[in-house]
Each structure stands twice: as structure tokens, then as C-alpha cells.
């Protein structure tokens, strides 16, 4: 499988969405097809999110999704230098989302106790590896011209501006940004069965355990866990100059 992956041919016309797991993948899979289609609602109503912006092996798609570090990309990626949307998210919320997702998805390993999974997450022993390594790899990319950085938090704070920023990052001319913004509101995505994973059978993704679109870290982490998380965060990112939207005291 590794040999097959490294032989994948990336096309110069492609666009990449690079959020690490639980960092805004579904939202990006909603925004990008709407931008590419000029705001056509059918782009998010006919196909489920994982088919609209599929994974790397679907090499003919106009937009592809991956959760990989930059140094894990196949050689063809560096040859064509495609446009990349690097979506980041407060790692506390990434942890929270991952904890619930691992518990509801049949293909994932049971996360165990929350306190255990916290250490597993911070040590990078999770699917797609360390959040810290992923974020640093893309922030340190040599050619930043084709990499657009945006955060999940920015999407929440000002969704209209986030849609416009994403569109410009993909080099698309002005489209119906306001219409796209409305389609991508949390409440509207939650009602769209092609975006909320309700088309999955319960034996694959059991949303009776947790809704796919869920809440934030303050609903899960204890004060002591949050403090420990902050300590690890500061150590791992002490050399990073990028200013994140979220705050760590």
C-alpha cells in the first residue's frame, strides 16, 4: 500500500485540503465544492462529503482531502506544487472531536478512558500521527505561495470572510460568497444528510453514541487536564512564530 501511495500522480489542476483529523474536514468538504461549482447547491446535495472531496487515491477529482504531514506527500506533489488549504484547529477541540469519533466509528480503535486517550493524543499515537508535527510541517513549507492557512475558529468567527479567503486561496474569481456562506452554516450542514454522515449505517458510525457534528473541549476536559494540555502545547510549539486564532495563556 505504501508503494502504491508514493506512485500516486498529482495533477497540477488539483486542489488539496489538508486539515489533520477532526480539524474542519467536513466544513472544508462543504465550502470547496460550492466554490468550484460557483455556488451550485447540487454540489453538496447529491454526493456525500467523502465523495465530493475524496481522499488522495481518487486522483481525478478536482479537490482532494488528506490528513498527512507535508513530508509524507508523494513525489508528484512536489513536482506540480498544487494549491493547498491548510485547515488548523485548537488541538484541545481536535482531541475532543477525536475522542468522540473514535468511540462512534466502527473502523477506529476504542479510545478507552478519556484520561488515557489524552496521553495517547498528546504523544501522537493516533491516526495520522501528532497534531503538532502536522501543523509544523505545513507552516514550515518552503514554498508558502500555494499554501493558504486558515483555522476552524476563523470559519466560526467570520464565515463570510473565510469563504472569500478560501476562494482566493484557490484562485477562483468572485462567486456567490454570501450564498455559499449560508449553505455552510452549522445549522444547515447539520440538516444536510450528505454532510452529517447520517447516510452511514449505525454499525459503521453509531451516532446514538455521539453526533458527528459536536461541541467543544470545555464540555470534556477537566481543569487539570486542560492545564496539562497547555504545558505540552507550549513546549511543542515554542519555536513556532505563527499567530494562531486561539489563545493559550
From TrEMBL:
It is an enzyme of class 2 (transferase). Its EC number is 2.8.2.-. Keywords: Transferase. Residues 23-240 form the Sulfotransferase domain. It comes from the Eukaryota. InterPro entries: P-loop_NTPase, Sulfotransferase_dom. PANTHER family: SULFOTRANSFERASE SULT. This is Sulfotransferase.
